[in-house]
């Protein structure tokens, strides 16, 4: 029987304590057949040195592997930021949660752009990141340029190309990606440019209770019908008419004039669909008129082509929702870039749906024109919707705690 050899570690020699560096006597071997014992008294240390070297290499490899693993773990922790705090569903019950996970007791407003954008040649990226362009199905050639960024080769200024004079009887919208909550105030600032009057339709901002991707171009849309909103239900237009229709009942506004108009919920494709508007003359410029009640407007901003900065505000009276509607005031102020002239139009007792899509919008009739627009800044509140959360026992598949509600903001519907 052979006595097992001990594998040493560190500076130890096989079968010898680490403190003993003398010659090593090989283990005794017993012959189980003859019962004779043979002693080998040679002093060969080669085997022990080989074992020691192998042992050292094993330890080194293990140390290197452990160190590498530790460094990898540290790097991964550095790359993944740990949350500062974690809120439970109990703590979030009834709270508002935005797209970034921010929590509040009230609905959170969204801000983008700033006043300096009005004098910049570029449109802020936090605007272009959250707005999307679309045009109606009538456009076939070069469809991908409408509702997209366009740089004026003469000035280097960025715009959103809404329409060109190469297309007629069509419309384009550039919409915010979420519906907005009209129980909260909002403000939109930007710039509109039109190279000729009487091109038909109009250019401005519209509000509609539809999917943002369908704003201005959805069911009932007819670009050449008045300012492009006739036939579309519950549509509010703030901007410029680009053709004065003579059809009875339309009570149409002069082209180049700032106007606020609204259709009712019937979708009737004629002037009877326009809602009676309550113009606030005391808080409007002195040249405003509203002879038929459905067409509050200012005098022409410019009798030819125009380029105006706009500032449109919505202020709810109380924020109370009645039959899905919110009542408030729209104030529209525009400044002519060429001569600094200011026009202001205020309409009170306006009713908007609680959830509305908002979009920059242009519609053209048979005349055609180059319609350009920019959004420079906005402040608004996204629509929220209570979401019920249940605690579930995954083993018994049953709810074991009362429901909780989160109120996250909604994406495009």
Features:
413 residues; mainly beta; Jelly Rolls; 2 domains; nine-stranded antiparallel β-sheet; eight-stranded antiparallel β-sheet; 3 helices; 10% helix; globular; disordered N terminus
What is the CATH topology assignment of the largest domain?
A: Jelly Rolls
- The percent of residues in helical segments reads 10-25%
CA-CA gap between termini:
83 Å
The gross shape turns out to be globular
From the alpha carbons, calculate the radius of gyration and give it in angstroms.
Answer: 38 Å
Report low-confidence residues grouped into runs of 5 or more. Answer: 1-55, 76-81
> Could you give the count of β-strands?
23
Give the count of structural domains: 2
Helix segment count?
A: 3
Q: How would a crystallographer describe the biggest sheet? A: 9 strands, antiparallel
Order of helices and strands: EEHHEEEHEEEEEEEEEEEEEEEEEE
β-strand percent reads 35-45%
Q: Structural class of the helices, strands and pairings?
A: mainly beta
Average residue pLDDT: 78
CATH architecture annotation of the largest domain: Sandwich
CATH class of the largest domain: Mainly Beta
What do these coordinates show?
- This protein has 413 residues and is mainly beta.
- It has two domains: 1-82, no CATH class; 109-381, Jelly Rolls (Sandwich), CATH 2.60.120.200.
- The chain has helices at residues 46-79, 89-92, 125-128; strands at 29-30, 37-38, 96-97, 103-104, 109-113, 131-135, 148-151, 158-163, 170-176, 180-181, 186-194, 202-208, 236-241, 257-262, 278-279, 297-300, 306-316, 325-336, 342-353, 355-364, 371-381, 387-393, 398-408.
- Strands 5, 7, 8, 11, 15, 17, 18, 19 and 21 form a nine-stranded antiparallel β-sheet that branches. Strands 6, 9, 10, 12, 13, 14, 16 and 20 form an eight-stranded antiparallel β-sheet that branches. A four-stranded mixed β-sheet has the order 4-3-23-22.
- The longest helix is centred in the first third of the chain and has 34 residues, at 46-79.
- The termini are far apart.
- 36% of the residues are buried.
- The model is unreliable at 1-55 and 76-81 (pLDDT under 50).
């Amino acid at each position: 029987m052979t006595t097992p050899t001990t594998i040493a570690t560190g500076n130890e020699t096989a079968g010898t304590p680490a403190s003993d560096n003398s010659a090593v006597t090989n283990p005794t071997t017993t012959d189980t057949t003859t019962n004779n014992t043979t002693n080998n008294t040679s002093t060969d240390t080669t085997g022990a040195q080989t074992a020691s070297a192998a042992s050292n290499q094993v330890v080194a490899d293990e140390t290197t592997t452990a160190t590498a693993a530790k460094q990898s773990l540290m790097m991964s922790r550095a790359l993944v930021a740990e949350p500062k705090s974690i809120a439970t569903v109990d703590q979030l019950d009834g709270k508002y949660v935005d797209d970034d996970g921010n929590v509040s007791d009230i609905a959170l407003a969204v801000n983008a752009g700033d006043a300096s954008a009005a004098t910049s040649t570029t449109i802020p990226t936090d605007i272009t990141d959250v707005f999307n362009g679309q045009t109606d199905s009538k456009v076939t050639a070069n469809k991908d340029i409408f509702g997209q960024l366009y740089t004026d080769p003469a000035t280097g200024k960025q715009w959103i190309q809404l329409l060109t004079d190469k297309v007629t009887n069509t419309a384009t919208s550039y919409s915010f990606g979420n519906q907005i909550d009209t129980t909260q105030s909002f403000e939109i600032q930007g710039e509109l440019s039109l190279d000729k009057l009487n091109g038909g339709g109009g250019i401005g901002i519209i509000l509609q209770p539809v999917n943002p991707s369908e704003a201005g171009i959805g069911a009932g849309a007819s670009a050449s019908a008045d300012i492009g909103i006739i036939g579309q239900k519950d549509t509010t237009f703030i901007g410029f008419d680009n053709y004065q229709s003579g059809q009875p009942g339309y009570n149409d506004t002069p082209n180049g004039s700032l106007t606020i108009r609204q259709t009712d919920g019937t979708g009737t494709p004629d002037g009877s669909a326009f809602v009676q508007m309550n113009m606030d003359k005391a808080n409007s410029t002195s040249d405003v008129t509203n002879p038929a009640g459905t067409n509050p407007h200012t005098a022409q901003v410019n009798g030819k082509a125009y380029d105006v900065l706009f500032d449109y505000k919505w202020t709810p009276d109380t924020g109370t929702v009645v039959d899905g509607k919110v009542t408030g005031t729209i104030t529209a102020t525009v400044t002519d870039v060429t001569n600094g002239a200011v026009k202001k139009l205020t309409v009170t007792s306006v009713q908007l749906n609680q959830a509305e899509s908002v979009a920059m919008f242009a519609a053209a009739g048979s005349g055609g024109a180059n319609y350009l627009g920019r959004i420079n800044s906005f402040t608004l509140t996204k629509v929220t919707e209570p979401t019920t959360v249940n605690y579930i026992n995954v083993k018994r598949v049953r709810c074991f705690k009362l429901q909780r509600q989160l109120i996250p903001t909604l994406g495009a519907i």
